[in-house]
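May I ask you for just one protein sequence along with its backbone structure tokens in two labelled lines?

_____
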Amino acid sequence: MFALGISDFSIGEGVYPAKQLLSLARRFGYRDLVCWDQGMAGYPKLRDTLEWIHKSRELEGLPPDPQWTGFRLHLGCRFTWRGHGYGALPFSDAGYAALNRLLTAQTHDAAPGPAIPGLGAPEPPRDCVLLADDLAGLDALLREGFDAALLAHPCRVQEARKALAAGLEVVAPQALRFRTAEGLEMHRLKRAIDQQATFLRTEALWQPAEAAVPRGEWEARFPFAEPAVERATAAVLERISGWQIHWGKWEVSKPLDQEAADLDALLRERVRRGVTEKYAESSEDLRGRALVRMEQELDLITAMNFARYFLLVQDIVLALKHKGLPTRICGRGSGAASLVGYALDLSNVDPVATNLMFERFLTKERKDPPDMDIDFAWDERDQVIQAVFERYGRGRVAVVSNHAFFKAKGALRAVAQAHGRPDSELKQLARYVRGWEGGLERASENPAWDTILRQARMLKGHFHQFSVHPGGTIVTPGPLWEHAAFQPAPAKVGVSTTTWDKDGVENYGLVKIDLLGNRSLAVIRDAYEVLGDRVPKDPGTHSRGDADTQALLGRGDSIGVFYVESPATRQLQQRVGKGDFETLVIHSSLIRPAAYRWVDRYVKRSRGEEVWEPSDPVFNELLSESFGVLVYQEDVIKVCVALAGWSHHEADQLRKLLGKPDCEAKLPFFEARFRRGCAERGVRPATVDESWDMIRTFQGYSFCKPHSASYAQVSFESAWIKTHHPAVFFASVITNQGGYYPAIAYLGDARRHRLVVRGPDANASAWPFTAEGEQALRVGLMQVHGAQEPEVRRLLEERDKKGPFEHLDDLLGRVKPSVTTAEALCAAGAFDLWAPDGDRTRLMWARLGGVPPGVRPRPTDLFDRADLEMATMTLTLELHPAALARVRKGGGSSRAAEVVKPNQRLRFWALVVADKEVATEKNERMQFVTFEDETGLCEAVAFPDAIRKRQRPFRVGEIVCVSGRSTEQDGLAVLEVD
């Protein structure tokens, strides 16, 4: 017989994550489990968990576990219709599609937005076994002509007897709702959280009598012991066992209006034309290698029936360009390794000249679909996605969802709120919990919080809610509901999302295209628009070869430069001292959280301070350009193939795992397989240890070489603008609000590049920041907080139509801004042109008819102006916030720029412009911090003792008095905070 499993994806009720639910079913003696959630969002997670049970045995070199041999997972779900509860179990593709259609229709009916063509009204699905929760619901189905049965309920035995007496069909699989009192408590807790109610006042949907029991005990109970019920239940299992969900076969749409075309021939034609054009002026060797690789890629793409994917992506990009929508794109990720993609103008880096590995994108063994990432300017991305919905139809397009799971902080907050605790108590508890995500076990003993902490520990790791993927989009050949259910996206009108996340979509076989937003593309776009004919004909090639741009990058002067402006990357550039394209590609990937030890070795080897002698010839062959250090995801694949004898597909499974949340639990199985493979091939143990130590550094996030090469191209174009046109550069960076630092830090860097920063001005400022010539930067009115954008836009329109404002009364009369907007603009200095003495307080009275008789407002001095600017713009124009604090609060005789040589005691006031918190090997908190004052920047490190002494970490925007001792690392001065 079979069981019905309710997982934590049943929001507001389910108590079991996938692994626990599967274990419970098996422990209770079941070999058939039906996913019985509200909707089908949790099915891929259950399936993936079951597959891992088998995969882990394979990695250990063990035979299949007999406990799980023959265990089957079936698809089903619960839904409501006309006020009654039902369940459906598909037994054909048509039934599965009908069930998806019902779920999709119900969610879209309940939310505003455009209609989905062809979806129709919600109705129970045909070609499914339909089960009703009660007799009234069963009667409603039967009256509509549906075949259905009653699902026996352990608390309603008489209802089952009545149905049997009436000749109705009754089935009795056990629903695994919860097992213990703690499980029922978790159910009530989830109900309270979902309903935003208190735990004590929340009634459970389930009752103690519904607790799960072993299969033998369940089958001994009525009604299952009834022969008719037993036969009916067995018949349901037999019926659904004859069908399996389509899984693993790629599904991707053909490009619009090309449904009848020979897509393989069309792709070859376009690619050959593109390769001919792009390599027309290349060397004979490069052109020859490109032609060979082109045929190899095309042959593989044809063999895997994947031409439609490339042509679909190209169709989307071309259709958008015809509408004038995307002004710039950047193909990145593994897709940028494809020469076919480069020939179709879907990426911006030559994969042959850059030696990019196509197998990272696609191999003949690959089972999951590859995906191509394309960046658009950040302010165009939403329009791009909407255009895809409009072009291919809302019934065929959806954005992929994200699945959010409770972490320690979120679990604690949710449970505390369910117990009626106010936020003030949460803040108090934070004093006892070091690092919210560090584990609830760190909480100090507090009897009043025992229950809350216990429940929060239970809740951690459970499914929480849906969110929207940054841009992963799928387009299906026919209606999307034939493959998966989809629902309105949270807070995005006119956009639908799948209920499955990225892994579920890809494992099923739906091919994802990432249409992502990138602020730096908008920075370059806007800067080029201002520069006009001053932009080189081929800016990409020109910037890579520009000596001044390389010098800027080599000295780490890259604040504001996309992808390479973080303190860690700038310091790496300074330590190595090279700014060429190839080095930048390496550095873009080398900076990742766990790789710091290997970064030091790379630096020493690159500078000739440490001789690198490969411990295995494989390293010399594969990793010579990075001096034996694994840099890219491809390096993990190459080393596993070369040392352990894995296939590319096997190695890619490890590569994918390293970026997943459950990596830590699964990685030991791959490590054992890797070490076993290396031992079989006679690899020295020291080499194996070294290799695995580097592979572990790819946990969390890491990049493939095509991704870094694509972004390095954007970095160079961005750096070229900063090198030769800094005023335009900083105006564009701050306007697009993109980057690692706050606006005030970019203005500080602008001044270090000898730019004059001019404040907001009602007659001179535009909405964005603007360059005034090559040496000045004007603050845009967008920066004035409190000024209402529609009113400011109206001011600019009035000024453009009728000319500059002659005086403040002229502005107030023509524009009629609200008091709030007028005061904000005045406080920020936008009206200073009418107050030569800088007396902003006197100007503020003008909005109210002038200064009343007898009132003498205090003149606005330099310090007052700085206060007003920080309050309205979070920046200052004349006096740095650190200098302001130093004068007002005293202390701090040193300056940030004095951190230039080791073993100096320093104490100074500074603004925190960047912070990064990391954990030590003992899991203690430490920080890397960037401080700034009017003299420059200072990089610092706060070790755990300093954090404990301060009682809280540093945060961007704080103005602090910092003290410490300077040290030197590879020639770079760093402050160790006391």
The first strand starts at residue 3 and ends at 5. Residues 217 and 434 are 46 Å apart (CA to CA). The radius of gyration is 32 Å. The chain is about 45% helix and 15% strand.
